[in-house]
Design a protein that fits this description.
Blueprint: H1 5-16, H2 20-49, H3 54-88
């Protein structure tokens, strides 16, 4: 997970969660991020090894901005989780 620090953080949040309901949500966040990360890798490898038409390249150029939006959204949710649980965790006794 060293190449994917966002997955490492989500995995840590999942492992440290003590409430069952929230733990399921942390696990869902982790799975969604794993799937999205691997989707990007698969699409990148496909583009790397296949000749694309100009129209396909245009669609991918538009999708780049979409992927940037998705990445920003992922990190936004991660930061929100860290803020929310960062405020709660100091008050929880282990």
């Amino acid at each position: 997970m060293n190449n994917h620090p966002h997955l490492k953080i989500l995995h840590s949040l999942y492992l440290n969660e003590t409430q069952a309901f929230r733990k399921v949500h942390r696990m869902t966040d982790l799975f969604e991020s794993i799937i999205k990360t691997h989707t990007v890798v698969i699409l990148s490898e496909y583009v790397k090894h296949n000749k694309l038409s100009d129209s396909a390249k245009g669609l991918l150029a538009q999708a780049k901005t979409l992927s940037q939006c998705l990445a920003a959204r992922l990190f936004f949710h991660l930061r929100q989780s860290q803020k929310r649980y960062g405020q709660v965790l100091p008050n929880v006794k282990k």
